[in-house]
Amino acid sequence: MNKQADSSTENHPVKVGDKTPLWTAPSTEGEIQLADILHTQAVLLIFYPADWSHVCSDELPLLEELVKLAGKLKLKTLAISNDSLFCHRAFAGEIGLQSTVLVSDTRHEISRVYGLPVDQDGFGPRATILIDQAGIVQRIKVEPGREQPRSMQEMEQIIQQVREWNGYPPGLENWQAERRNAMQLRRAQPLAAPARLQLRFWGTRGSIPVSGLAHVRYGGNTSCVSLTSDTGHLFIFDCGSGARELGQHLLETAQTDKEKKGIEGYIVLSHTHWDHIQGFPFFAPVFQPGNRFNILGWSNCSQTLASILAGQMEKIYFPVSLEALPSELNFFSLQFNGAVVDGAKLTGRLLKHPLPSTAYRLELGGKTIVYATDHEPHSLPDLPPASTLGDDVIDPKLVELAANADILIHDAQYSLAELVQKVGWGHNAGEVAVDTAVRAGVKHLVLFHHDPAHNDRAIDTILQSARWRAEALGRQNLKITAASDGMALDL
Fold first, then answer.
1. Which of 86, 97, 255, 420 gives a 20 to 30 Å CA spacing to 176?
2. Which residues 6+ apart lie within 8 Å of 366 measured at CB?
3. Architecture field, domain 7-179
4. HEC letters along 412-429
5. How far apart are CA 359 and CA 275, in angstroms?
6. pLDDT in tens, 18-31
7. For residue 183, how many C-alpha atoms fall within 13 Å in the half-sphere facing its CB?
8. For residue 76, how many other CB atoms are within 10 A of its CB?
9. Residue 395: beta bridge partners?
10. Under a CB-based contact definition with an 8 Å cutoff, are residues 286 and 327 in contact?
11. How is the chain split into domains, by residue range?
12. Same fold across 7-179 and 197-490
């Protein structure tokens, strides 16, 4: 740090209501002088221990997304650690930061002028300081430990305070409602309530696509499911390799549309493992102007949804960049509290998976579909018990999410024998799917995310075992199907 406040401020904690110390330091935008920023913008200081630490890699993209969704604010976000400028530039590029400026505080001088602690290992604090345009410190929050992430709810409150300084309506509820409304595609006329829905499976395989005579009946494309209606709704769950065939189908359908409207809809991502996004670069509708997609997901990973999809389309992997796509793409990747889009109510719950996967419940036209792929039991089931498995095995949040659903699409990648050998892999067995469906009162269970090592006969066996489990529980009326590429279900 080249300059700082009077040295008498060092190690004396700054309090709310105090004037901020003024300092100068190198950053990813060149030399930062706090005094030059103040008077025209408020400043949000995000102190964090180190680049590439797990918590920081997860946290900073989420904070940037939160600020982006807050509107046009007179606010500068400065993230401060003791890493070098070289590290900061590499870190910002890797996790996809665009507007957050990383400040290098190699000797913890900025931390010290605010009286923030530095631990015995030489790591700075995880702390948040909000300074208004007059240079007055309005909020200070120091987390109890460097591995303790910031509360997103508290960050919402801090940013809402800045919104109110900028003339936005008071009340956090108003901003949350604005965010939910922002997920809605802008339409000249709202879509009418549908009378008919169709659920269609374009990719039902997990992990990697497969081909060959052993996979003819169930298919080999990775996860992609569409929900359409007779009034124009389009929801796409995941963009595995099946998205290529879906895209071709949408284009062919659009060519027969006498009104020649663009293709518009929502892409809902459960998570961003490769088998759930690898089809996006081959989804042809995004290569045509006039088409519009809002891409929704639960981002608590180390990059935003946009930067992840852009990453797999970098020129070393793919000839067309995300930025070059002529369609309109909007990304909404904050932790998900639900939304109503085109009259459909969409809610989500995080499930147990190496990269947490999100299950979604979509309610539209009096029907409910739950998409719950890529998750494993809390513990290994000890089957066959006489009654349904309990919360020690089955996630009660999923049971609640799937309550009375017309269709539950559930991960069933393994047999029970295989599940014992795959603890921690993030997948499930057909029998557990049955118990979940029975507890939730589901009408139709669809087994999904088939193992690439399983041929058609192996999937037949998993399906038969699931049906036997339903019979053992006295639920012969539970319809159970193993998903196959091209399968369509009318609701």
1. 97
2. none
3. 3-Layer(aba) Sandwich (3.40)
4. CCECHHHHHHCCCCCCCE
5. 16
6. 999 999 999 999 99
7. 27
8. 21
9. none
10. yes
11. 7-179, 197-490
12. no
Task: In whole angstroms, give the CA distance from residue 362 to residue 199.
Answer: 12
Q: Measure the CA–CA gap between 247 and 285, rounded to whole angstroms.
A: 6
Q: For residues 121 and 49, give the distance between their C-alpha atoms in angstroms, rounded to a whole number.
A: 10
Question: For residue 5, is pLDDT > 80?
Answer: no
Tokens matching residue 450: 């088939």
Question: Which residue from 138, 16, 28 is spatially nearest to 75, judged by alpha carbons?
Answer: 138
CB 7, CB 129: distance < 8 Å: no
Q: Which CATH class is domain 197-490?
A: alpha beta
Q: How confident is the model at residue 39 (pLDDT cuts 50, 70, 90)?
A: confident
Residue 246 in contact with residue 283, Cβ under 8 Å?
A: yes
> Does 170 score more than 90 pLDDT?
yes
Residue with tokens 């012969």: 476
CB 473 within 8 A of CB 435: yes
Q: What are phi and psi of 55, to 5 degrees?
A: -65, -45
Give the H or E element holding residue 250: helix 243-255
Q: What is the DSSP letter of 335?
A: P
How many degrees, rounded to 5, is the angle at CA 385 between CA 381 and CA 389?
50
Q: How far is it, in rounded angstroms, from Cα 337 to Cα 312?
A: 28
Are the CB atoms for 237 and 360 separated by under 8 Å? Answer: yes
Segment 365-394, tens digit of pLDDT:
999 999 999 999 999 998 778 899 999 999
Residue 436 tokens, joined = 């979940």
Q: What distances in angstroms separate CA 484 from CA 191, 220, 488, one per listed residue?
A: 30, 9, 9
The pLDDT tens digits of the residues spanning 176-235 come to 888 777 788 989 899 999 999 999 999 999 999 999 999 999 999 999 999 999 999 999
